[in-house]
Amino acid sequence: MERTLKKKLSKEEKKELLKLLTYEKVKGKPIYYRGYEKVLKGELPPEAVMGSSGLQAFLIRLIVEFLLKTLDLRKYEILFNELGFLYQKGSWRNLDIAIFEKEKVKPYLLEDKLIPVPPKIVIEVDTKADLTRYKSFESYMYEKTQDLLDAGVEKVIWITTKPRKVMVAEKGKPWLVQDWNKDIEVMNGIRINLNEIVKDYLKEVGDV
């Protein structure tokens, strides 16, 4: 039986690889991408654990398209694709979709570094984080949500694909959980319905 010899990483190589595989950092402690250990063992390339699932990427695309059509882009900036938000020294979070006040974020848009100002709204779809240090996905989701609210984010909307639920969290208000078929207020009376935007897309491409 053939055996594949895997190159043993040097200490420096492992350090660099772990840096690449860091998904977020909280109080100086890294949270790695889910499956990072397989990359360290040579079983998977980094891209295999860092990439989004088809459904995750599809939903983010549909939501961003909706926001671009409905928000006042003279006032707001929509950033996505795992934006790095530096909310305190030694702590940063990846954001799937972030809505900023344009004037506040404008100075940082052309800088090649993490953005230090909080967005008004954050929308997350599942997660690619390794959760071994947490009791459950919910523990991670609640921690990240609270961190973002404490950092000045006004609202966090978290979409999960299994089960198809949406959590809406605002500082000082009860956190709400509802199904995909319910309207979600993003901001300023603008509402989105996940079931509807998916159905509308499928109609456009002729699948239903």
Give the arrangement of secondary structure elements:
Layout: H1 11-20, E1 22-26, E2 29-32, H2 36-40, H3 46-50, H4 54-70, E3 76-88, E4 91-101, H5 102-105, E5 121-125, H6 137-150, E6 155-161, E7 164-170, E8 176-179, E9 184-187, E10 190-192, H7 194-205
Parallel strand pairs: 5-6
Antiparallel strand pairs: 1-2, 3-4, 4-5, 6-7, 7-8, 9-10
Helix pairs in contact: 4-7
- Enumerate the strands of the largest sheet in spatial order, edge to edge or round the barrel: 3-4-5-6-7-8
Q: What is the count of distinct domains?
A: 2
- Report the CATH topology name of the largest domain: tt1808, chain A
Distance between the termini: 49 Å
Assembly of the depicted chains: single chain
Q: Which word captures the global form?
A: globular
Notes on the structure:
There is one protein chain. With 208 residues, the chain is of the alpha+beta class. It folds into two domains: 11-50, no CATH class; 54-205, tt1808, chain A, CATH 3.90.1570.10. It is built from seven helices and ten strands. The strands form three sheets. It has a six-stranded mixed beta sheet, with helices on both faces. Strand 7 (164-170) and strand 8 (176-179) form a beta hairpin. The chain is globular, with a radius of gyration of 19 Å. The chain starts with 10 loop residues before the first helix and ends with a helix. 21% of the residues are buried. Mean pLDDT is 92; it is low at 1-5.
